[in-house]
Design goal:
It contains 7 helices and no strands. By secondary structure, it is mainly alpha-helical.
């Protein structure tokens, strides 16, 4: 009998939390501040970055169907907020040169070491997965871009 009540309470809680919605509004995108525009990234690089990075690390997040289900939606929103806090490609022009260098070096390392894109993301978004050639290409390009930054 107790198990039945626990189940009823759990279902009731799951139903009630569905009314606690996340804000899916993206901040406006200004192309003059955008990473790909500023760096004039080659089309192949731009495509990889847009596909594998921008969904979390820009103001162009696309919220999938499961972003409507709490508590998954809360995790997703928190993840996007944290990702934008680390690097936001939509606000690239706002970073000082020394920060840009560090962020580019971190991007290179994270891609090279397989830390980005996150495996939890690529599990659901297989198009964001990087093959060995893309990893090498992207990592080297980030390194080259970091060397171009005037400090």
């Amino acid at each position: 009998m107790k198990k039945k009540w626990y189940l009823i309470i759990a279902v009731a809680i799951l139903l009630v939390i569905q009314f606690i919605r996340i804000d899916k509004t993206n901040p406006p995108v200004n192309l003059a501040k955008d990473f790909i525009s500023i760096t004039n990234a080659p089309p192949e690089i731009a495509k990889i970055i847009k596909t594998s990075c921008y969904d979390c690390h820009s103001n162009e997040s696309v919220y999938p169907w499961y972003s409507n289900i709490a508590p998954v939606s809360w995790y997703l929103k928190n993840h996007i907020n944290e990702a934008r806090g680390r690097v936001n490609f939509s606000e690239w022009a706002d970073y000082p040169a020394n920060k840009i260098t560090r962020k580019l070096e971190a991007c290179s390392e994270d891609v090279e070491e397989g830390e980005m894109p996150l495996s939890s993301y690529t599990l659901i978004h297989s198009a964001a997965s990087l093959n060995k050639d893309q990893i090498k290409l992207l990592s080297e390009w980030f390194k080259k871009e970091s060397e171009k930054v005037v400090k």
